[in-house]
Amino acid sequence: MFIFIFASIVFFGTYILIASEKVHKTTAAMVGASMMFLVVLPGPNSEGAGENKLSPGQLVSQMAESIVFTKTPVLKEHLETAEKHERLDVFARYVNFDVVFTLAGMMLLVNILSGTGIFQYVAIKCAKLAKGSPMTTMIMLVIATAVLSAFLDNVTTVLLIAPVTLLVASELGVKPLPFLMAETMASNIGGTATLIGDPPNLIIGSVAGLDFAAFMINLAPFIVIILAIYCLCLKLYYSKRLHVTVERRARIMELNEKAAITDYSNMKRGGIVMIITIIGFLLHGAVGLQPCVISMAGASLALAVCKIDVDKALERIEWNTLFFFIGLFVLVSGAEQAGLMAKFGALLNFTQDWNILVTVLVVMWVSGVAAAIMNNVSFTAAMVTVMAAFLKSSPAFAAPEAQELMWWGLALAVCLGGNGTIVGAAANLITAGISEKAGHKITFKEFFRYGFPVTLFSLVAASIYITLRYFWLCR
Questions:
Q1: Given 41, 65, 94, which residue is the final one in a domain?
Q2: Domain limits for position 54
Q3: pTM of the model
Q4: Helices (H), 36-96
Q5: Residue 58 sits in the same domain as residue 194
Q6: pLDDT in tens, 150-184
């Protein structure tokens, strides 16, 4: 009972600290993880707490003793090797390194490409193709942001696009806030389309066993429709609110997008590696490779073929984000070890007699709201464990198709729900930080005024999509 209470206090306390932003989210997650390691989670030579009293190594030994043929030399040797590996690897099992290394590899690859100026080129080119029209410029930047977010990661995308947007808005003589907000929403929408576009998708895909192609087939077409409607809404809302003089338009046309490219050689080499990596993601499920292998292989190839300072490239990786994920995974593992996640899963048992569609929709709306309040990455890290336990124990979700319906609903809810508040997604906080440094502060209330309608519409549309999928499955 002590372990359960302790783990609950650490778990909820850490999440409250993360949501309050009184302490840096990475610091909060690492402190919480350390507490779990010190008290709750078992080491290689110690007994744990909660439901699993034995460490993984001890469990292997116990299984070995129960096998009749343990006297066979070959089998005994294999069991001893397995036990050794289990003991050495016990702490690593508390962290989903598939997610961590996938993110690290993509961050490194994007850092190499960003140093060439290709992303700044795209932003300036969009503004020039729009011929200085503020409305057309906004739409093109929104589409570019959404597409980039699908294949990079929404945090990286806004880091690259936002500074150029401030320049474009300044040249046009318009307020940058509508542009930045529109791009931030687009990054979260576009990131929903693929496995690597938004961190919650990586977590869900890893736990549910859904690959890159599955996300592209099942979510990307729907996201394209959502993005098209979103752009139409932007045009209807801003068409009469954004005005630019002829002189201002001329300034945009004078910008030289080619000057943004600072390294043509690395741009070509890095671009080819990026294409190969994306193809690898599309095929990784068919060839049996984990996303992290594809990501790290792509990053390694880029380091090998591009002429760059390796030390500087590695320094620019967002280590605080990676350690935040590591801390969250350990925190959730500790809560699971203590039985807290099982308690959460039991709360969903009252839906056992419900229709599958009703259950999925309820989970979606609760998850969408919770993701907006808690931050979608933090919420997803905990929710996937609860959901996996619930789906395993629920007779209604015994069919693989029903389980996938739930996973797709959850992915849509947490990614799109991230647009709800300024703390809902990491991209929101990044945009707010860049905007504030430029003298344009985005308050919680102001972000909510933009984000709430977008989130509400997105969740309604996602609910309709899931409903149509459900009835299609029932045919």
A1: 94
A2: 2-94
A3: 0.75
A4: 56-66, 73-89
A5: no
A6: 987 787 788 778 888 888 888 788 888 999 999 99
